[in-house]
Amino acid sequence: xxxSAPPPGSRPALLRFLGGVxxxxxxxxxxxxxxxxxxVDCGLFQGVADLRRRNWDKLPCDARDIHAVVxxxxxLDHCGYLPRLVRHGFRGPILTSAATARLAEIVLRxxxxxxxxxxxxxxxxxxSKHRPARPLYDDDDVxxxxxxxxxxxxxxxxxxxxxxxxxxxxxxxxxxxxxARLTLEDGHSLAVSGDLGRPGHPLLLPPxxxxxxxxxxxxxxYGNRRHDHESARRAFASVLARALSRxxxxxxxxxxxxxxxxxxxxxxxxxxxxxxxxHVPVYVDxxxxxxxxxxxxxxxxxxxxxxxxxxxxxxxxAISPEPFLAARTVQESIDINHSTGPAVIVSSAGMATGGRxxxxxxxxLPDPRNAVVIVGFAAEGTRARDLVDGARTLKMFGxxxxxxxxxxxxxxxxxxxxxxxxxxxxxxxxxxxTTYLVxxxxxxxxxxxxxxxxxxxxxxxxxxxxxxxLVR
Length: 472
Ligand SMILES: [Zn+2]
What we know:
The protein is of the alpha/beta class. Helix content is 31%, strand content 21%. The structure holds zinc ion.
Protein backbone atom coordinates (compact mmCIF):
# COMPACT_ATOMS: atom_id res chain seq x y z
CA UNK A 1 0.00 0.00 0.00
CA UNK A 2 1.03 3.61 -0.37
CA UNK A 3 3.25 4.25 2.62
CA SER A 4 5.32 6.88 0.85
CA ALA A 5 5.59 10.30 2.44
CA PRO A 6 2.63 12.54 1.62
CA PRO A 7 3.17 15.43 -0.80
CA PRO A 8 4.67 18.43 0.98
CA GLY A 9 2.10 20.54 2.74
CA SER A 10 -0.67 17.96 2.84
CA ARG A 11 -1.70 16.65 6.21
CA PRO A 12 -2.98 13.14 6.82
CA ALA A 13 -6.75 12.81 6.67
CA LEU A 14 -8.79 12.45 9.82
CA LEU A 15 -11.34 9.66 10.21
CA ARG A 16 -14.15 10.10 12.73
CA PHE A 17 -16.46 7.33 13.87
CA LEU A 18 -19.85 9.03 14.20
CA GLY A 19 -22.01 5.92 14.48
CA GLY A 20 -22.10 2.20 13.87
CA VAL A 21 -19.41 1.47 16.46
CA UNK A 22 -20.11 -1.03 19.24
CA UNK A 23 -23.65 -1.21 17.83
CA UNK A 24 -25.19 -2.39 14.56
CA UNK A 25 -26.99 0.83 13.66
CA UNK A 26 -26.24 4.45 12.79
CA UNK A 27 -23.23 3.77 10.51
CA UNK A 28 -21.52 7.11 9.76
CA UNK A 29 -17.84 7.62 9.08
CA UNK A 30 -16.47 11.07 8.32
CA UNK A 31 -13.20 11.48 6.41
CA UNK A 32 -11.68 14.95 6.42
CA UNK A 33 -8.63 15.73 4.30
CA UNK A 34 -7.18 19.11 3.38
CA UNK A 35 -9.75 19.76 0.67
CA UNK A 36 -12.45 17.15 1.00
CA UNK A 37 -14.96 16.20 3.66
CA UNK A 38 -16.67 12.91 2.82
CA UNK A 39 -19.19 10.93 4.81
CA VAL A 40 -19.28 7.17 4.20
CA ASP A 41 -22.73 5.85 5.08
CA CYS A 42 -25.38 7.97 6.69
CA GLY A 43 -27.35 5.55 8.80
CA LEU A 44 -30.10 5.90 11.34
CA PHE A 45 -29.72 4.68 14.91
CA GLN A 46 -32.43 2.12 15.63
CA GLY A 47 -33.52 -0.07 18.51
CA VAL A 48 -33.73 0.98 22.16
CA ALA A 49 -34.71 4.58 23.03
CA ASP A 50 -31.17 5.56 24.09
CA LEU A 51 -29.87 4.73 20.63
CA ARG A 52 -32.77 6.33 18.78
CA ARG A 53 -32.22 9.54 20.73
CA ARG A 54 -28.77 9.82 19.16
CA ASN A 55 -30.47 10.61 15.84
CA TRP A 56 -31.22 14.05 17.33
CA ASP A 57 -27.56 14.76 18.26
CA LYS A 58 -25.69 17.43 16.32
CA LEU A 59 -22.98 16.24 13.94
CA PRO A 60 -19.45 17.46 14.76
CA CYS A 61 -19.43 19.44 11.51
CA ASP A 62 -21.92 21.52 9.59
CA ALA A 63 -23.88 19.40 7.09
CA ARG A 64 -23.28 22.18 4.53
CA ASP A 65 -19.53 21.56 4.76
CA ILE A 66 -19.74 17.90 3.72
CA HIS A 67 -18.83 17.60 0.04
CA ALA A 68 -20.18 14.14 -0.73
CA VAL A 69 -21.78 11.11 0.89
CA VAL A 70 -20.96 7.56 -0.15
CA UNK A 71 -23.69 5.02 0.63
CA UNK A 72 -22.77 1.33 0.73
CA UNK A 73 -26.33 -0.04 0.61
CA UNK A 74 -30.01 0.68 1.09
CA UNK A 75 -30.61 -0.60 4.62
CA LEU A 76 -31.92 2.07 6.98
CA ASP A 77 -28.96 1.73 9.34
CA HIS A 78 -26.71 2.85 6.44
CA CYS A 79 -28.86 5.42 4.59
CA GLY A 80 -31.69 6.40 6.96
CA TYR A 81 -30.12 9.65 8.18
CA LEU A 82 -29.73 11.14 4.67
CA PRO A 83 -32.97 13.22 4.71
CA ARG A 84 -31.95 14.67 8.06
CA LEU A 85 -28.54 15.62 6.61
CA VAL A 86 -30.27 17.30 3.66
CA ARG A 87 -32.65 19.10 6.02
CA HIS A 88 -29.52 20.46 7.75
CA GLY A 89 -28.15 21.83 4.51
CA PHE A 90 -26.16 19.06 2.82
CA ARG A 91 -26.19 19.76 -0.93
CA GLY A 92 -23.54 17.44 -2.40
CA PRO A 93 -23.76 14.25 -4.43
CA ILE A 94 -24.91 11.02 -2.76
CA LEU A 95 -22.67 8.50 -4.48
CA THR A 96 -23.94 4.94 -4.61
CA SER A 97 -24.84 2.15 -7.02
CA ALA A 98 -27.90 2.54 -9.25
CA ALA A 99 -29.79 -0.28 -7.49
CA THR A 100 -29.04 1.22 -4.07
CA ALA A 101 -30.37 4.60 -5.22
CA ARG A 102 -33.70 2.97 -6.18
CA LEU A 103 -33.96 0.81 -3.06
CA ALA A 104 -32.90 3.64 -0.73
CA GLU A 105 -35.72 5.81 -2.02
CA ILE A 106 -38.22 3.07 -1.07
CA VAL A 107 -36.61 2.69 2.35
CA LEU A 108 -36.49 6.44 3.05
CA ARG A 109 -40.13 7.01 2.05
CA UNK A 110 -41.21 4.24 4.40
CA UNK A 111 -39.01 5.66 7.17
CA UNK A 112 -40.48 9.18 6.72
CA UNK A 113 -44.01 7.75 6.89
CA UNK A 114 -43.22 5.83 10.10
CA UNK A 115 -41.70 8.92 11.71
CA UNK A 116 -44.61 11.11 10.73
CA UNK A 117 -47.03 8.53 12.14
CA UNK A 118 -45.05 8.24 15.38
CA UNK A 119 -44.99 12.03 15.85
CA UNK A 120 -48.70 12.25 15.19
CA UNK A 121 -49.36 9.45 17.65
CA UNK A 122 -47.18 11.12 20.30
CA UNK A 123 -48.99 14.43 19.89
CA UNK A 124 -52.35 12.72 20.05
CA UNK A 125 -51.52 10.84 23.25
CA UNK A 126 -49.33 13.54 24.73
CA UNK A 127 -46.39 11.29 25.63
CA SER A 128 -43.61 13.12 23.82
CA LYS A 129 -41.07 15.27 25.69
CA HIS A 130 -41.01 17.56 22.66
CA ARG A 131 -44.14 19.65 22.26
CA PRO A 132 -45.27 19.31 19.65
CA ALA A 133 -43.46 16.09 18.72
CA ARG A 134 -41.80 16.35 15.33
CA PRO A 135 -40.55 13.70 12.93
CA LEU A 136 -36.80 13.53 12.31
CA TYR A 137 -37.76 14.19 8.67
CA ASP A 138 -40.78 14.00 6.44
CA ASP A 139 -41.82 13.30 2.83
CA ASP A 140 -40.57 16.67 1.59
CA ASP A 141 -37.10 15.99 2.99
CA VAL A 142 -37.07 12.66 1.15
CA UNK A 143 -38.17 14.38 -2.09
CA UNK A 144 -35.21 16.74 -1.78
CA UNK A 145 -32.81 13.94 -0.79
CA UNK A 146 -33.47 11.71 -3.80
CA UNK A 147 -32.48 14.58 -6.10
CA UNK A 148 -28.95 14.32 -4.77
CA UNK A 149 -28.58 10.62 -5.56
CA UNK A 150 -25.78 10.31 -8.08
CA UNK A 151 -25.39 6.66 -9.15
CA UNK A 152 -21.83 5.61 -9.96
CA UNK A 153 -20.71 2.51 -11.85
CA UNK A 154 -19.59 -0.40 -9.68
CA UNK A 155 -16.09 -1.72 -10.30
CA UNK A 156 -14.36 1.36 -11.71
CA UNK A 157 -12.73 4.31 -10.00
CA UNK A 158 -14.28 7.76 -10.31
CA UNK A 159 -12.92 11.09 -9.16
CA UNK A 160 -15.14 12.68 -6.51
CA UNK A 161 -13.12 15.87 -6.50
CA UNK A 162 -9.55 16.77 -7.45
CA UNK A 163 -7.24 14.17 -5.93
CA UNK A 164 -9.95 12.11 -4.25
CA UNK A 165 -11.09 8.88 -5.89
CA UNK A 166 -13.82 6.38 -5.14
CA UNK A 167 -14.34 2.80 -6.29
CA UNK A 168 -17.36 0.69 -5.34
CA UNK A 169 -17.12 -3.10 -5.46
CA UNK A 170 -20.02 -5.54 -5.19
CA UNK A 171 -20.76 -6.40 -1.55
CA UNK A 172 -23.06 -9.40 -2.12
CA UNK A 173 -25.21 -8.43 0.89
CA UNK A 174 -28.40 -7.12 -0.76
CA UNK A 175 -29.00 -5.93 -4.31
CA UNK A 176 -26.84 -2.88 -5.03
CA UNK A 177 -24.67 -3.31 -1.95
CA UNK A 178 -21.00 -2.43 -2.26
CA UNK A 179 -17.83 -2.01 -0.30
CA ALA A 180 -16.11 1.31 -0.92
CA ARG A 181 -12.48 2.25 -1.41
CA LEU A 182 -11.43 5.89 -1.23
CA THR A 183 -8.11 7.21 -2.47
CA LEU A 184 -7.22 10.43 -0.71
CA GLU A 185 -5.22 13.49 -1.78
CA ASP A 186 -2.08 12.36 0.02
CA GLY A 187 -2.16 8.96 -1.70
CA HIS A 188 -3.47 7.04 1.29
CA SER A 189 -6.47 4.79 0.90
CA LEU A 190 -9.37 3.82 3.10
CA ALA A 191 -11.85 0.99 2.57
CA VAL A 192 -15.24 0.51 4.20
CA SER A 193 -16.78 -2.95 3.96
CA GLY A 194 -20.38 -1.85 4.50
CA ASP A 195 -22.34 -5.00 5.28
CA LEU A 196 -20.70 -8.03 3.69
CA GLY A 197 -22.82 -10.71 2.09
CA ARG A 198 -22.43 -14.35 2.85
CA PRO A 199 -20.79 -16.22 -0.06
CA GLY A 200 -23.78 -18.60 -0.11
CA HIS A 201 -26.39 -15.94 -0.88
CA PRO A 202 -28.79 -17.76 -3.21
CA LEU A 203 -29.27 -14.85 -5.63
CA LEU A 204 -26.18 -12.66 -5.38
CA LEU A 205 -22.55 -13.38 -6.18
CA PRO A 206 -20.18 -13.37 -3.19
CA PRO A 207 -18.56 -10.05 -2.27
CA UNK A 208 -15.70 -9.04 -4.52
CA UNK A 209 -12.42 -9.82 -2.74
CA UNK A 210 -10.85 -7.13 -0.61
CA UNK A 211 -7.87 -5.78 -2.51
CA UNK A 212 -6.23 -3.87 0.33
CA UNK A 213 -6.15 -0.33 1.74
CA UNK A 214 -4.12 1.59 4.31
CA UNK A 215 -7.09 1.74 6.65
CA UNK A 216 -9.99 -0.70 6.67
CA UNK A 217 -13.35 -0.49 8.42
CA UNK A 218 -14.95 -3.93 8.51
CA UNK A 219 -18.37 -4.93 9.79
CA UNK A 220 -18.70 -7.42 12.64
CA UNK A 221 -22.45 -8.05 12.97
CA TYR A 222 -21.92 -11.80 13.26
CA GLY A 223 -18.28 -11.53 14.35
CA ASN A 224 -18.84 -14.26 16.95
CA ARG A 225 -21.12 -16.62 15.00
CA ARG A 226 -21.09 -19.33 12.41
CA HIS A 227 -24.08 -19.96 10.14
CA ASP A 228 -25.35 -23.27 8.90
CA HIS A 229 -27.47 -22.48 5.87
CA GLU A 230 -28.08 -26.04 4.72
CA SER A 231 -29.70 -27.10 7.98
CA ALA A 232 -31.68 -23.84 7.99
CA ARG A 233 -33.07 -24.67 4.54
CA ARG A 234 -34.03 -28.17 5.67
CA ALA A 235 -35.74 -26.81 8.79
CA PHE A 236 -37.62 -24.28 6.66
CA ALA A 237 -38.86 -26.97 4.25
CA SER A 238 -39.94 -29.34 7.00
CA VAL A 239 -41.96 -26.82 9.03
CA LEU A 240 -43.72 -25.77 5.84
CA ALA A 241 -44.53 -29.37 4.89
CA ARG A 242 -45.82 -30.15 8.40
CA ALA A 243 -48.13 -27.12 8.57
CA LEU A 244 -49.52 -27.64 5.07
CA SER A 245 -50.19 -31.32 5.74
CA ARG A 246 -52.26 -30.22 8.76
CA UNK A 247 -54.20 -27.88 6.46
CA UNK A 248 -52.58 -24.90 8.16
CA UNK A 249 -51.39 -21.50 7.02
CA UNK A 250 -47.75 -20.42 7.32
CA UNK A 251 -46.86 -16.81 8.17
CA UNK A 252 -43.31 -15.64 7.55
CA UNK A 253 -42.45 -12.19 8.96
CA UNK A 254 -39.68 -10.97 6.67
CA UNK A 255 -37.62 -7.83 6.23
CA UNK A 256 -38.87 -6.03 3.14
CA UNK A 257 -35.59 -5.92 1.25
CA UNK A 258 -33.65 -9.02 0.28
CA UNK A 259 -35.09 -11.35 2.94
CA UNK A 260 -38.40 -11.35 1.09
CA UNK A 261 -36.62 -12.25 -2.15
CA UNK A 262 -34.55 -14.98 -0.48
CA UNK A 263 -37.73 -16.47 1.04
CA UNK A 264 -39.52 -16.30 -2.32
CA UNK A 265 -36.57 -18.01 -3.96
CA UNK A 266 -36.73 -20.77 -1.35
CA UNK A 267 -40.50 -21.12 -1.87
CA UNK A 268 -40.01 -21.27 -5.66
CA UNK A 269 -37.64 -24.20 -5.10
CA UNK A 270 -40.13 -25.95 -2.81
CA UNK A 271 -42.84 -25.39 -5.40
CA UNK A 272 -40.57 -27.12 -7.89
CA UNK A 273 -39.95 -30.21 -5.75
CA UNK A 274 -43.58 -30.55 -4.69
CA UNK A 275 -43.12 -29.64 -1.01
CA UNK A 276 -45.30 -26.61 -1.69
CA UNK A 277 -48.30 -27.91 -3.71
CA UNK A 278 -49.64 -25.74 -6.52
CA HIS A 279 -53.02 -25.27 -4.86
CA VAL A 280 -51.38 -23.44 -1.93
CA PRO A 281 -51.10 -19.72 -2.78
CA VAL A 282 -48.15 -17.58 -1.71
CA TYR A 283 -48.99 -14.00 -0.72
CA VAL A 284 -46.59 -11.11 -0.34
CA ASP A 285 -48.31 -8.58 1.86
CA UNK A 286 -46.12 -5.47 2.23
CA UNK A 287 -46.14 -2.44 -0.08
CA UNK A 288 -42.49 -1.78 0.68
CA UNK A 289 -41.46 -5.38 -0.01
CA UNK A 290 -43.40 -5.32 -3.29
CA UNK A 291 -41.71 -2.08 -4.37
CA UNK A 292 -38.32 -3.63 -3.61
CA UNK A 293 -39.34 -6.80 -5.43
CA UNK A 294 -39.76 -4.73 -8.61
CA UNK A 295 -36.14 -3.59 -8.32
CA UNK A 296 -34.98 -7.22 -7.93
CA UNK A 297 -37.12 -8.25 -10.91
CA UNK A 298 -35.56 -5.54 -13.06
CA UNK A 299 -32.12 -6.79 -12.00
CA UNK A 300 -33.12 -10.33 -13.02
CA UNK A 301 -34.53 -9.15 -16.35
CA UNK A 302 -31.41 -7.14 -17.16
CA UNK A 303 -29.12 -9.93 -15.91
CA UNK A 304 -27.35 -7.63 -13.50
CA UNK A 305 -23.68 -8.61 -13.04
CA UNK A 306 -24.08 -8.85 -9.27
CA UNK A 307 -26.47 -11.81 -9.66
CA UNK A 308 -25.37 -15.41 -9.81
CA UNK A 309 -25.24 -16.30 -13.53
CA UNK A 310 -27.48 -19.36 -13.09
CA UNK A 311 -30.09 -17.18 -11.35
CA UNK A 312 -29.88 -14.42 -13.96
CA UNK A 313 -30.25 -17.00 -16.74
CA UNK A 314 -33.61 -18.10 -15.38
CA UNK A 315 -34.98 -14.57 -15.14
CA UNK A 316 -37.83 -13.75 -12.78
CA UNK A 317 -38.67 -17.43 -12.17
CA ALA A 318 -35.99 -17.44 -9.45
CA ILE A 319 -38.19 -15.40 -7.13
CA SER A 320 -41.66 -16.34 -8.42
CA PRO A 321 -43.26 -19.27 -6.59
CA GLU A 322 -46.38 -19.16 -8.85
CA PRO A 323 -49.22 -18.93 -8.02
CA PHE A 324 -48.00 -15.94 -6.17
CA LEU A 325 -50.21 -13.02 -5.19
CA ALA A 326 -49.26 -9.48 -4.26
CA ALA A 327 -51.26 -7.50 -1.74
CA ARG A 328 -50.56 -3.82 -2.33
CA THR A 329 -53.70 -2.17 -1.02
CA VAL A 330 -55.16 -2.48 2.46
CA GLN A 331 -58.24 -4.16 0.97
CA GLU A 332 -56.06 -6.79 -0.74
CA SER A 333 -54.37 -7.40 2.59
CA ILE A 334 -57.72 -7.83 4.35
CA ASP A 335 -58.91 -10.16 1.59
CA ILE A 336 -56.15 -12.65 2.49
CA ASN A 337 -57.93 -13.17 5.81
CA HIS A 338 -61.00 -14.38 3.97
CA SER A 339 -59.18 -16.95 1.89
CA THR A 340 -59.92 -20.49 2.97
CA GLY A 341 -57.49 -23.39 2.96
CA PRO A 342 -53.76 -23.45 3.48
CA ALA A 343 -51.59 -20.55 2.34
CA VAL A 344 -48.15 -19.05 2.79
CA ILE A 345 -48.04 -15.36 3.75
CA VAL A 346 -44.81 -13.37 3.60
CA SER A 347 -45.24 -10.02 5.30
CA SER A 348 -43.28 -7.35 7.17
CA ALA A 349 -42.06 -6.14 9.64
CA GLY A 350 -39.41 -8.83 9.96
CA MET A 351 -39.38 -8.78 13.78
CA ALA A 352 -43.18 -8.37 13.97
CA THR A 353 -42.73 -4.99 15.65
CA GLY A 354 -45.54 -3.58 13.52
CA GLY A 355 -46.88 -3.62 9.98
CA ARG A 356 -49.38 -5.86 8.27
CA UNK A 357 -47.86 -9.08 9.57
CA UNK A 358 -49.49 -8.36 12.94
CA UNK A 359 -52.98 -8.83 11.50
CA UNK A 360 -51.98 -12.20 10.07
CA UNK A 361 -50.36 -13.31 13.32
CA UNK A 362 -53.42 -12.21 15.26
CA UNK A 363 -55.53 -14.49 13.08
CA UNK A 364 -53.32 -17.57 12.80
CA LEU A 365 -51.56 -17.86 16.19
CA PRO A 366 -54.50 -19.41 18.13
CA ASP A 367 -54.83 -22.40 15.74
CA PRO A 368 -52.33 -25.29 16.23
CA ARG A 369 -52.56 -26.27 12.55
CA ASN A 370 -50.76 -23.05 11.56
CA ALA A 371 -47.09 -22.13 11.74
CA VAL A 372 -44.93 -19.01 12.07
CA VAL A 373 -41.40 -19.11 10.70
CA ILE A 374 -38.93 -16.50 11.98
CA VAL A 375 -36.27 -16.26 9.26
CA GLY A 376 -34.04 -13.48 10.52
CA PHE A 377 -32.32 -11.96 13.50
CA ALA A 378 -34.91 -11.39 16.26
CA ALA A 379 -33.80 -8.61 18.58
CA GLU A 380 -34.53 -8.53 22.30
CA GLY A 381 -37.89 -6.96 23.10
CA THR A 382 -39.58 -7.76 19.78
CA ARG A 383 -42.58 -10.06 19.23
CA ALA A 384 -40.44 -12.24 16.97
CA ARG A 385 -38.05 -12.79 19.87
CA ASP A 386 -40.93 -13.56 22.27
CA LEU A 387 -42.21 -16.19 19.83
CA VAL A 388 -38.77 -17.74 19.44
CA ASP A 389 -38.41 -17.79 23.23
CA GLY A 390 -41.62 -19.80 23.55
CA ALA A 391 -44.14 -17.16 24.67
CA ARG A 392 -47.57 -18.76 25.26
CA THR A 393 -49.37 -15.46 24.63
CA LEU A 394 -48.52 -12.42 22.55
CA LYS A 395 -49.88 -8.92 23.03
CA MET A 396 -51.29 -7.33 19.89
CA PHE A 397 -53.77 -4.50 19.40
CA GLY A 398 -54.28 -4.18 23.14
CA UNK A 399 -55.11 -7.82 23.87
CA UNK A 400 -53.33 -11.11 24.55
CA UNK A 401 -53.53 -13.72 21.82
CA UNK A 402 -52.79 -17.38 22.68
CA UNK A 403 -49.86 -18.90 20.80
CA UNK A 404 -50.99 -22.37 19.70
CA UNK A 405 -49.44 -22.35 16.24
CA UNK A 406 -46.08 -24.05 15.65
CA UNK A 407 -43.20 -21.57 15.89
CA UNK A 408 -39.99 -22.28 13.99
CA UNK A 409 -36.78 -20.29 14.39
CA UNK A 410 -34.68 -20.35 11.22
CA UNK A 411 -32.33 -17.42 11.79
CA UNK A 412 -29.67 -18.48 9.33
CA UNK A 413 -31.25 -16.92 6.27
CA UNK A 414 -29.12 -13.93 7.20
CA UNK A 415 -27.70 -11.66 4.51
CA UNK A 416 -24.50 -11.13 6.54
CA UNK A 417 -21.22 -12.99 6.32
CA UNK A 418 -20.36 -14.88 9.49
CA UNK A 419 -17.00 -14.65 11.27
CA UNK A 420 -15.21 -17.32 9.18
CA UNK A 421 -16.43 -15.72 5.98
CA UNK A 422 -15.19 -12.27 7.01
CA UNK A 423 -11.77 -13.72 7.87
CA UNK A 424 -11.70 -15.42 4.45
CA UNK A 425 -12.61 -12.14 2.76
CA UNK A 426 -9.69 -10.42 4.47
CA UNK A 427 -7.13 -13.18 4.19
CA UNK A 428 -6.03 -12.64 0.59
CA UNK A 429 -5.29 -8.93 0.96
CA UNK A 430 -2.08 -7.26 2.13
CA UNK A 431 -2.44 -6.17 5.77
CA UNK A 432 -3.77 -2.64 6.23
CA UNK A 433 -1.94 -0.32 8.59
CA THR A 434 -4.98 -0.51 10.90
CA THR A 435 -8.27 -2.42 10.71
CA TYR A 436 -11.23 -1.05 12.63
CA LEU A 437 -14.10 -3.33 13.65
CA VAL A 438 -17.38 -1.49 13.20
CA UNK A 439 -21.09 -2.33 12.88
CA UNK A 440 -21.24 -5.01 15.55
CA UNK A 441 -22.32 -5.34 19.16
CA UNK A 442 -19.39 -5.06 21.56
CA UNK A 443 -18.78 -8.81 22.07
CA UNK A 444 -19.11 -9.63 18.37
CA UNK A 445 -16.69 -6.83 17.41
CA UNK A 446 -14.21 -7.81 20.14
CA UNK A 447 -14.32 -11.51 19.19
CA UNK A 448 -13.60 -10.72 15.55
CA UNK A 449 -10.86 -8.26 16.55
CA UNK A 450 -9.09 -11.04 18.45
CA UNK A 451 -9.35 -13.42 15.50
CA UNK A 452 -7.96 -10.84 13.06
CA UNK A 453 -5.12 -10.16 15.48
CA UNK A 454 -4.30 -13.85 16.13
CA UNK A 455 -5.09 -15.50 12.81
CA UNK A 456 -3.95 -12.78 10.40
CA UNK A 457 -1.48 -10.91 12.61
CA UNK A 458 -3.13 -7.59 11.66
CA UNK A 459 -3.43 -4.52 13.88
CA UNK A 460 -7.11 -4.46 14.72
CA UNK A 461 -9.06 -2.06 16.93
CA UNK A 462 -12.66 -1.67 18.10
CA UNK A 463 -13.04 2.13 18.01
CA UNK A 464 -15.10 4.23 20.39
CA UNK A 465 -18.05 6.29 19.26
CA UNK A 466 -16.91 9.81 18.36
CA UNK A 467 -13.23 8.81 18.27
CA UNK A 468 -10.96 10.38 15.64
CA UNK A 469 -7.87 8.75 14.11
CA LEU A 470 -5.42 9.58 11.34
CA VAL A 471 -5.57 7.78 7.98
CA ARG A 472 -1.98 6.71 7.33
ZN1 LIG B 1 -27.39 -4.21 5.71
